[in-house]
């Protein structure tokens, strides 16, 4: 996504690891997007595919980042931290968690099965 397409209140999703890795590549276990790194720790915490409602937009040295109402912030060992989420890490969210992450062939198979059941 482009930064100009993202506004406070928008309901988005954090992209899947494999999708970002294919587009940007992996370097030292991290995905280096044009704006910031998406780390393997972020993946391990389950951020990939999670809903992300933009609560604020801020600039850090000319790069736009986003905070979320869902609380991408973590508290560990008494320290609060947050992840830098950039536009390149986000995608539209259509409100159907069950189907979005299915590989295309699995989605097609499920759709065909559903259609056959409806016809029978």
Describe the structure.
The chain is an alpha+beta fold and 120 residues long. It is built from four helices and nine strands. The chain has helices at 17-24, 40-44, 97-100, 104-119; strands at residues 11-14, 26-27, 30-32, 37-38, 51-60, 63-68, 74-76, 79-81, 90-92. A four-stranded antiparallel β-sheet has the order 6-5-1-9, with no helix packed on it. The protein has a three-stranded antiparallel β-sheet with strand order 2-3-4.
Can you give the mean pLDDT? 78
Question: What is the strand tally?
Answer: 9
Architecture (CATH level 2) name: Roll
Radius of gyration over all CA atoms, rounded: 17 Å
Spatial arrangement of strands, main beta sheet: 6-5-1-9
Sheet having the most strands: 4 strands, antiparallel
Instruction: Output the number of helix runs.
Output: 4
**What CATH first level would be assigned?**
Mainly Beta
Fraction of helical residues: 25-40%
The structural domain count equals 1
The proportion of residues in beta strands is: 25-35%
How far apart lie the N and C ends?
42 Å
What overall form do the CA principal axes indicate?
Answer: globular
> What is the fold named in CATH at topology level?
SH3 type barrels
Structural class: alpha+beta
Order of helices and strands: EHEEEHEEEEEHH
Low-pLDDT sequence parts: 98-102
Give the gist of this structure.
This protein is an alpha+beta fold. 28% of the residues lie in helices and 30% in strands. It has a single domain (3-95), classed as SH3 type barrels, CATH 2.30.30.
Could you give the topology of this structure?
Blueprint: E1 11-14, H1 17-24, E2 26-27, E3 30-32, E4 37-38, H2 40-44, E5 51-60, E6 63-68, E7 74-76, E8 79-81, E9 90-92, H3 97-100, H4 104-119
Antiparallel strand pairs: 1-5, 1-9, 2-3, 3-4, 5-6, 7-8
């Amino acid at each position: 996504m482009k930064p100009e397409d993202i506004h406070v209140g928008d309901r988005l999703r954090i992209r899947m690891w494999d999708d970002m890795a294919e587009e940007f590549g992996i370097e030292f276990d991290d995905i280096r997007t044009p704006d910031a790194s998406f780390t393997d720790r972020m993946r391990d915490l389950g951020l990939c595919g999670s809903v992300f409602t933009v609560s604020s937009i801020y600039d850090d040295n000319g790069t736009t980042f986003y905070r979320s109402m869902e609380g991408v912030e973590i508290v560990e060992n008494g320290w609060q931290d947050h992840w830098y989420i950039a536009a390149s890490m986000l995608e539209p969210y259509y409100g159907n968690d069950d189907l979005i992450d299915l590989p295309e062939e699995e989605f097609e198979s499920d759709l065909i099965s559903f259609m056959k059941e409806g016809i029978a």
